[in-house]
Design the sequence.
């Protein structure tokens, strides 16, 4: 399913450019336009799913693929052992701004907890 007004569907369809660093049948990953860490990558399922609230049982493999991609990219970027953060925001209170689910992969610096 593609949503014609969805920014990430347009990146997946090659209609908007992005710095894509990983592609698989189920997911793509590209660098965030406004990075919050030395490495800030967004890992996105090809299928349009608006929020975590819209997931169903058939999405479990697609979501698992996002985490495997995060693991692989963290290794490639060289911070897998030092540590990194993955985050998925859901709806307004968490600050979600693009309504096509995406895993943020942030690495290359130390992070604090709790997050802001
Ligand atoms: P959210 O706030 O929904 O969790 O994350 C959306 C992310 O998408 C933000 O970190 C924002 O910087 C990023 N973003 C927004 N527009 C674009 C774009 O056109 N290209 C890329 N590469 N990232 C974008
Ligand atoms: Zn979409």
Sequence:
């Amino acid at each position: 399913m593609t949503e014609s007004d969805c920014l990430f569907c347009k990146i997946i369809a090659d209609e908007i450019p992005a710095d894509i660093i990983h592609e698989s049948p189920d997911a793509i990953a590209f660098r965030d336009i406004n990075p919050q860490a030395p490495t800030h990558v967004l890992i996105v399922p090809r299928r349009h799913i608006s929020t975590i609230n819209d997931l169903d049982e058939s999405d479990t493999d697609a979501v698992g693929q996002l985490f495997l991609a995060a693991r692989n990219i963290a290794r490639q970027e060289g911070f897998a052992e030092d540590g990194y953060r993955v985050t998925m925001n859901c709806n307004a209170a968490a600050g979600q701004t693009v309504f096509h689910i995406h895993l943020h992969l942030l690495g290359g610096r130390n992070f604090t907890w709790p997050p802001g």
Summary: The beta strands are 20-23, 27-31, 39-45, 84-87, 103-107. The radius of gyration is 14 Å. The first strand starts at residue 20 and ends at 23. Residues 3, 6, 8-9, 48, 100 surround zinc ion (ligand 2) (CB under 6 Å).
